[in-house]
Amino acid sequence: MKIAFIIFNDITWLDLIGAYDPISRLKKMSYLPGLSWDFCSFTEVTSDHYGACFRPTKIQSSLKDYDMIYVPGGYGTLTLLLDQPFIKWLQTAESVPLKVSVCTGSILLGAAGFLKNNKATTHFSEFETLKRYCREVSNERIVDDAEVITAGAVSSSIDLGLYLCKKWVSEKAAREISERMAYRYDCNF
User: Fold this and answer.
1) DSSP label of 47
2) 136: which strand partners?
3) What CATH number labels 2-180?
4) Going by C-beta distance under 8 Å and a sequence separation of 6 or more, which residues neighbour residue 185?
5) Is residue 149 over pLDDT 80?
6) Domain limits of the chain?
7) What distance lies between CA 115 and its chain's CA centroid?
8) What is the DSSP string of 127-182?
9) What is the rounded distance in angstroms from the CA atom of residue 87 to the CA atom of residue 67?
10) What does the alpha-carbon distance between residue 90 and residue 67 come to, in Å, rounded to a whole number?
11) Can you say whether residue 158 is alpha, beta or left, with left for phi > 0 and alpha for psi between -120 and 50 degrees?
């Protein structure tokens, strides 16, 4: 499995790292030894609202060859909604089998046209914005709707990462990873 973690300016890093940590442990703990990922961006350097920077591994490369894209949220999502070159780049993931987001990242998935027939969630303050892009807005912490999985506000990113561990490997793997993280995880999503 090959994952594209999408990063951008004014990102909320916990939205990314919260899921990345448990997912990366699938490889480290030999549950999915062939797992790989790239940090993909439309710009050369990305930083959060406060200046913490992260350099991507891929810049403006097509997203079509990944098995999953992961789109976090942050203040920058509302600006990117109006950035047609960014949205066109995100649309290169049209054939990607699994599209995942947390927080306002779902709004970017929606702007790219990936939520038309889906139930989805986002940060609770942006439910109205998300309504424009999906079939139904949910206040559930994690919504798994076929080829799209969305999660709510920031801290749900950790649960989302563990949910993906459970989905791809097993509940036992998700529990073992959560124990190593010293995180109380409820597998009943």
Assistant:
1) E
2) 119
3) 3.40.50.880
4) 159, 162, 174, 175, 178
5) yes
6) 2-180
7) 14
8) HHHHHTTSSEE--SSEEEETTEEEE-STTHHHHHHHHHHHHHT-HHHHHHHHHHTT
9) 19
10) 14
11) alpha
For the record, the structure tokens of 20 come out as: 């990345």
Q: Residue holding tokens 């969630």?
A: 121
Whether the model clears a pTM of 0.90, i.e. scores above it, the answer is: yes
Q: How far is CA 46 from CA 36, 41, 53, 102, 152, in A?
A: 21, 8, 6, 18, 23
**Which tokens sit at 120?**
């989805």
Q: Is 66 helix (H, G, I), strand (E, B) or coil?
A: coil
For residue 7, give the DSSP letter: -
Q: Is 30 buried (19+), middle (13-18) or exposed (0-12) by CB count in 10 A?
A: exposed
- Check: CB of residue 174 under 8 Å from CB of residue 166: yes
Q: Is 182 left (phi over 0), alpha (psi -120 to 50) or beta?
A: left
Specify which residues 98 forms β-bridges with: 68
Mean of the per-residue pLDDT values for the chain? 95
The confidence score (pLDDT) of residue 164 equals: 97
